[in-house]
Specification:
Layout lengths: L2 E3 L5 E3 L6 E2 L3 E4 L2 E4 L8 E4 L3 E4 L2 E6 L11 E3 L10 E3 L4 E5 L1 H7 L3 E5 L10 E2 L6 E6 L4 E4 L5 E4 L16 E2 L2 H18 L21
Parallel strand pairs: 12-17
Antiparallel strand pairs: 1-2, 3-14, 4-5, 6-7, 8-14, 9-10, 9-13, 11-12, 15-16
InterPro entries: Hedgehog/Intein_dom
Protein name: Hedgehog/Intein (Hint) domain-containing protein
Length: 213
């Protein structure tokens, strides 16, 4: 676990707010590979630039005893076409596609913090567990496939390793704007329940790599 020093000199744990669980698999040319098994130089499929090598990998430990404001966000099975529950840290950036975003920002694809997803498709929070968290960096910020419809932001290196994810050509929303967008998606989802099944295709199906398992 990374730690910092308090004014009184006592070591205190750093609270992680982004990064990927080491056990979460990402799409690569070699199949779905757990994030914790990736090393610098390994290729990973990205949303806009295809196959890109990982530039750097950092590993941390998620502490169990953190304030509720920093608890992970839980995506239940099916929330974003995921076939198993997914746990994301609150500031982990997630890609959404929405007509609401296109109308408001001129971009259909936007990046939002996982925290903004609360209340949509059964997404909630749960107490953290002691798990390894992996921080992948590319030469420039990238969006990686963590599932067919689950795309996550990974930072760049050097000057591109800022706290706020910024990828060229992608709109990044702050928490307030992202919450407003998700509120629209929640309302849209209530109406979508009455649409025929063939009108509810996964939003990223055309962009996802071919099945790799």
């Amino acid at each position: 676990m990374q730690s910092s020093v308090s004014p009184l000199g006592a070591a205190v744990p750093s609270i992680l707010v982004d990064g990927l669980p080491a056990s979460h698999a990402l799409a690569t040319p070699d199949g779905w590979v757990e994030a914790g098994d990736l090393e610098p130089g390994d290729p990973v499929f990205t949303f806009e630039q295809g196959e890109m090598p990982v530039a750097a990998v950092f590993r941390s430990a998620q502490a169990r005893n953190v304030p509720p404001a920093f608890w992970p966000v839980l995506l239940p099975t099916g929330a974003m076409d995921n076939d198993h529950p997914v746990e994301l840290l609150p500031a982990q950036m997630v890609m959404l596609e929405s007509e609401w975003a296109e109308d408001a920002y001129g971009e259909a694809f936007v990046m939002v913090p996982a925290l903004a997803l609360l209340g949509w498709n059964g997404i909630t929070r749960r107490p953290p567990r002691e798990v390894e968290i992996v921080h992948l960096q590319f030469d420039t910020p990238q969006v990686v496939f963590a599932g067919r419809c689950l795309l996550l932001g990974c930072g760049g290196t050097g000057a591109m390793a800022a706290n706020l994810f910024r990828a060229q050509g992608l709109m990044t929303l702050g928490l307030k704007e992202a919450r407003q967008l998700v509120a629209g998606l929640i309302a849209e989802g209530e109406r979508a329940r009455f649409l025929p099944p063939d009108q509810a295709a996964p939003p990223y199906a055309a962009f996802a790599p071919a099945p790799l398992l």
